[in-house]
Specification:
β1 and β2 form a beta hairpin. The protein has ten helices and ten strands. It has one domain: TIM Barrel, CATH 3.20.20. The chain is an alpha/beta fold and about 325 residues long. The structure holds NADP nicotinamide-adenine-dinucleotide phosphate (NAP). NADP nicotinamide-adenine-dinucleotide phosphate (NAP) binds next to β10 and α9.
């Protein structure tokens, strides 16, 4: 079994243990958040997702690290990664940036995910150990089951996770891409703790998964995290020109409805201009207004700034209601 990295990592050049650099000015934190089950902790309101951090070539690593570092400086504390992102590269990059950030990153909220290929009892512990080693931590704040696999009983995975939770290696247990029924099954399998988060695809254009679980989660005090909150940039003003998106946008169901969604995106853009807020503000606050916590993606520091500007601008309920109507394809 692999041991998590407890000791400071060693410099590749000298082999000498590195000291985390100090940071004299703590950044401003984002306000708000959600109670995290019965843990007594608060789930941050907005997070940076690091799926893309594993997709870039090694020569893009400096930009990737700068993006995470900038997010930390700007007060973001929730970082969402997974063992499958870049086959561990995303976790490794995050671990490195957090380590180098020293005290600034002390209160980072680190979330990673157990791959859908590792849901058997014998696979769960080695998977977590691998993640901890890459992250350079002895525990994660939240560990999510990335996605269920119908071939593996949910109860089997949850029991293995509960053991790790009991040992203190997981601050809290969550799931991702679980339907309401799967969520109920997962909770029933836990004896000493509960599922505190369900992370699902949720944005103005793609609502089915989120709508399916939202009421249940609200009632049961489970935080709903939204992934792909900006529809891969379409809800932040990208891809409105009719050009076929390249890169990550290709991999979503958005591509199949692109023309129709582009038209709606243009109308949302016009609404945002009229309301005097950035377009991404509609996307993020539509989720926040529902009590959902968005984990957005960014591939460069400027995108982090844009998203935080959008987060700081608060559209009125009337504007959000009009955005909801437009995004559904109804007349405004
Ligand atoms: N649990 C799951 O199964 C699951 C699945 C998918 C994602 N996730 C998590 O959710 C996170 C977010 O997902 P996502 O990356 O699909 O989310 P997203 O926030 O909808 O899209 C992020 C992309 O939008 C573009 N973008 C961001 N800010 C922009 C701006 N200001 N202007 C224009 N474009 C902008 C960037 O594209 P470019 O990089 O191309 O510039 C960025 O990579 C992931 O990183 C991952 O952590 C989880």
């Amino acid at each position: 079994m692999t041991k998590p990295r407890e000791a400071p990592p060693r410099s590749r050049r000298s082999g000498i243990a590195r000291r985390p650099p100090s940071s004299p000015t703590p950044p401003t934190r984002l306000e708000g958040g959600f109670p995290l089950g019965k843990t007594g902790r608060t789930h941050p309101p907005l997070g940076l997702g690091l799926w893309a951090m594993g997709r870039w070539r090694p020569e893009d690593e400096a930009r990737t690290k700068a993006t995470i570092g900038h997010a930390l400086e700007r007060g973001l504390r929730w970082f969402d990664t997974a063992e499958v992102y870049g086959a561990g590269r995303s976790e490794r990059i995050l671990g490195d940036v957090l380590y180098r950030a020293g005290p600034t990153a002390q209160d980072a909220w680190v979330v990673t995910k157990l791959s859908w290929e590792h849901l058997r009892t014998a696979q769960v512990r080695p998977s977590l150990m691998g993640s901890l080693q890459r992250l350079g931590r002895s525990r994660v704040d939240l560990y999510l089951v990335h996605s269920p696999d119908p071939r593996v009983p949910i109860a089997e995975t949850m029991a293995a996770l509960e053991t790790l939770w009991t040992e203190g290696m997981i601050g809290a247990i969550g799931v991702s891409n679980f339907s309401r029924e799967q969520l109920i099954e997962a909770r029933a399998a836990l004896r000493k703790t509960d599922v505190v988060v369900n992370q699902v695809l949720y944005n103005l254009f793609e609502r089915d998964d989120g709508d399916d679980v939202l009421d249940y989660c609200r009632k049961e005090g489970i935080v709903v995290e939204a992934y792909t909150p900006l529809a891969r940039g379409l809800l932040a003003g990208r891809y409105q020109s009719g050009a076929v998106p390249v890169g990550p946008a290709r991999s979503t169901g958005l591509r199949d409805r692109l023309e129709e969604l582009q038209e709606r995106a243009r109308r949302l853009d016009a609404l945002a201009r009229e309301a005097g807020v950035p377009m991404a503000s509609l996307a993020l606050h539509w989720l926040a207004r529902r009590g959902v916590a968005p984990a957005f993606g960014a591939s460069q520091p400027a995108q982090v700034d844009d998203v935080l500007t959008a987060w700081a601008a608060r559209p009125t309920d009337v504007v959000l209601s009009r955005a909801d109507t437009i995004a559904r394809g109804d007349a405004d």
